[in-house]
Each structure stands twice: as structure tokens, then as C-alpha cells.
């Protein structure tokens, strides 16, 4: 019986330490050292939250850059990948359909960057490769009348390099890119 009381006391101690003290301390430290990130890296425009740097948003307009495909339809409460094996016929058919849709939307596209037709693991990757963003430039130029070199310059301006100089790949946050595009052209 004595060992049961010891187990209960140890359990209560660990619940207080791990379930209360540790989360409060880490949240407090995060709020002090990284307040923007701790609050979700929110993007505001005119005092209104319009998105997060960390989550992709669906943009349907042909005048805007489109992010990677999302199985969850960009619904943050339904994060998921497709769970379809890349060797399956379902995956091949789905990929062919996405390529056809992409070519209809971007008729001048010859080389298709993989990130324009494949999903990230979560379905919410907010970034595209610079090649994926630049592949959409002719469509956006045609729709908006903005010169392709101006749009390519905008993509270059928003291209982030590898983290710490060697981790990951260069990337462009589509939401931030579209916000700047909207500011510049007043669509």
C-alpha cells in the first residue's frame, strides 16, 4: 500500500512539473525571445490578420501566384497528406491530372517544377521553389499586364536562401509574395 501512495505522489509531482510548470516556462521564454513566432508568425494588413507565414493559403485568381497543391484544401483544421504511394496507379493518375490542369492554366509552361504538382507532407507548405514561382510568371503577366521581368524581380526579392547557408533549399513564401504583388499593382 505504501508503494501505491508513493506512485500517486510521484505522479502528481510529474503532472505539476511536466503539465504546468514546464509549459508555462517555455511559453514565457518563447514570448520574450521570439514573440512573433510564439504567436504563430501572423501576417497583418491594415490591423487585420490575413494569414500566417507558416501555413499555405489557396489563391484561385489567375492574377496571383498559386501555392503547392493541398489535399486538405488549405483548411488548417484538416492537415493531411494524400497517403498515396508514389508507385501506385492512383498517384500516377492524380499527378497526370494535376499536370494537365497546370498546363491549361499556364499554356506556355514547358518544364514543370515538381513542387507545383506535388504536395508537402502536411498539405500546408507555404513555400515554393523560385522555379515554381517563376513558372507562373507568364500567366500572371498576361492576366495583369505587368512585365515578366518585373514579376521575376519580385520573385527574386522574396526568395529566401538556405537556412544557415546550408540547410534546405531556396524558397519563396507565396502568401508574402502575393501580398506584395497586390500592394504594387492594386488588383
UniProtKB/TrEMBL annotation:
Complexes and interactors: The system is composed of three essential subunits: KdpA, KdpB and KdpC.
Similarity comment: family membership: Belongs to the KdpC family.
Subcellular location: Cell membrane
Protein name, UniProt field: Potassium-transporting ATPase KdpC subunit
Keyword annotations: ATP-binding, Cell membrane, Ion transport, Membrane, Nucleotide-binding, Potassium, Potassium transport, Transmembrane, Transmembrane helix, Transport
Subcellular location, principal: membrane
Function: Part of the high-affinity ATP-driven potassium transport (or Kdp) system, which catalyzes the hydrolysis of ATP coupled with the electrogenic transport of potassium into the cytoplasm. This subunit acts as a catalytic chaperone that increases the ATP-binding affinity of the ATP-hydrolyzing subunit KdpB by the formation of a transient KdpB/KdpC/ATP ternary complex.
Membrane topology: Single-pass membrane protein
One cellular-component annotation, GO: plasma membrane
Transmembrane regions: 12-34
The species this protein was found in: Paenibacillus silvestris
Keyword Nucleotide-binding appears in the UniProt entry: yes
Keyword Cell membrane: yes
Domain of life: Bacteria
Amino acid at each position: 500500500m505504501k508503494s501505491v501512495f508513493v506512485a500517486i505522489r510521484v505522479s502528481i509531482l510529474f503532472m505539476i512539473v511536466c503539465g504546468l510548470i514546464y509549459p508555462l516556462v517555455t511559453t514565457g521564454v518563447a514570448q520574450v525571445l521570439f514573440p512573433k513566432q510564439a504567436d504563430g508568425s501572423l501576417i497583418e494588413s491594415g490591423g487585420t490578420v490575413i494569414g500566417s507565414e507558416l501555413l499555405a493559403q489557396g489563391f484561385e485568381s489567375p492574377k496571383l501566384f498559386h501555392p503547392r497543391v493541398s489535399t486538405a484544401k488549405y483548411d488548417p483544421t484538416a492537415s493531411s497528406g494524400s497517403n498515396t504511394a508514389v508507385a501506385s496507379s492512383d498517384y500516377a493518375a492524380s499527378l497526370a491530372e494535376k499536370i494537365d490542369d497546370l498546363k491549361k492554366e499556364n499554356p506556355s509552361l514547358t518544364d514543370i517544377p515538381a513542387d507545383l504538382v506535388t504536395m508537402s507532407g502536411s498539405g500546408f507548405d507555404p513555400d515554393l521553389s523560385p522555379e515554381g514561382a517563376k513558372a507562373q510568371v507568364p500567366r500572371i503577366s498576361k492576366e495583369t499586364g505587368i512585365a515578366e521581368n518585373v514579376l521575376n524581380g519580385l520573385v527574386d526579392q522574396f526568395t529566401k536562401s538556405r537556412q544557415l547557408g546550408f540547410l534546405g533549399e531556396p524558397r519563396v513564401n507565396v502568401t508574402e509574395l502575393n501580398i506584395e504583388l497586390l500592394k504594387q499593382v492594386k488588383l
